[in-house]
Write a structure and sequence with these properties.
single chain; about 475 residues; alpha+beta; three-stranded antiparallel beta sheet; about 50% helix; disordered C terminus
Amino acid sequence: MVEVCDLWTVILSIIVVKLCHWIYQWSNPKCKGKLPPGSMGFPIIGMTFEFMKPHDAIQLPTFVKEKAHRYGPIFRTSLFGAKVIISTDSGLNIEMAKTNHVPGMPKSLARLFGENNLFVQSKESHKHVRSVTTQLLGSQGLKLRMMQDIDILTRTRMEAGARNGGLDVKETVSKILIECLAKKVMGEMEPEAAKELALCWSHFPKGWFRISWNIPGNGVYRMMKAKKEMMKILKETVLKKRASGEELGEFFKTLLGKTEGGEEKISVESAIEFIFIFFLIANEATPSVLTATVKLISDNPKVMQELKREHERIVQGKSEKENKAGLTWEDYKSMTFTQMVINESLRITSTAPTVLRIIDHEFQFGDYTIPAGWIFMGFPSVHFNQEKYDDPLAFNPWRWKEKDLTAIVSKTYIPFGAGSRLCLGADFAKLLMASFIHHLCRYRWSMKTETTVLRRFILMFPGGSDIQISRDTEVDNSAG
């Protein structure tokens, strides 16, 4: 009996020693040089829960501010089960964006996107995808293929909202975006398939950037279930169109492409997976940022007044026939103050990391060794640097006066990231935002003052994003 007790004592002692050794190794990762300071938190969980606490959307996360104050502009931690280097140093962020090309993401996103998706495949595949996407969403593609559709869809949704006395901004923008992109990407879809796809998007779980446990009933499980259903709808649509000889969308045909030998450059499955990711990212980012922009405008009467003046000039400077024809590219380019508002909104709401990479090689930064294989998160703290922006927490579109409003990236402005992973939808997002603001300013509207904009890595609107909109004060179209 004594021997059995002694044996169990030895076994428990070994387990405790092993556990302590594992915790020590987790807290003190191995590195050839000196790692940046920081804390790895609890094993596996790391500092995820602290990092994901909701915070004011126009300020950097409390977690990042506190850790940067304690450790400096670069520190290590563990998030979503991965080892992470967080940087608020603008120089390092730009350098990482230029020299590292594989996007960094936790396992939950890697699982959602697919381990071999076109975002992380070879440079050749990524180059092909970027080229095709630029044809659709670059300035020339927007001017020739997208401008009219965006204008018509926005005008139609705004008129419906005015008839009903209100609309949900985020939901409305999401519908405009999906309807606009789906037609260009997939071609005409059967009404039932389009309805099912829209239903999938509406049921897609919020806060999908989360820890990666796939347990029945939790967010990751629902996320994977939604993806499976959406991929099924997209694939069935493609196969039916091919079988019947019906035209696929221009984007999809170009994406498949042809090699010199006549073979498709990528498989149908890979193309569908890319389109799913393309829709997912676009549908999360642009509607949220535009909703936050509407809130900022609503809270600043001087900004709203100046916007109304600008858009009244556009409407009243055209004949009734020209107004019925809709916005032109020249109208869009004349929206100087609107572009100032958009730039300022993008600056002040970019409080998530805009540079996300897998560190592909070890390198030195000052006294520290930045290890290969870790995830790099670069936060755009330069947007809140008082030396670069006077009173940086103030929403002040006039600070952009006489600046280059077409630039989407600079050393002091990186809302769309930088380097080879610069957001391809930047110009599309700005066009959609400008079109929505234009049509909104033709009505009397307001958003509840208690509407709040928070960020939990992605933007959140816990009180909703409804606005009241009145049709009877629409700008007179017959002027001019």
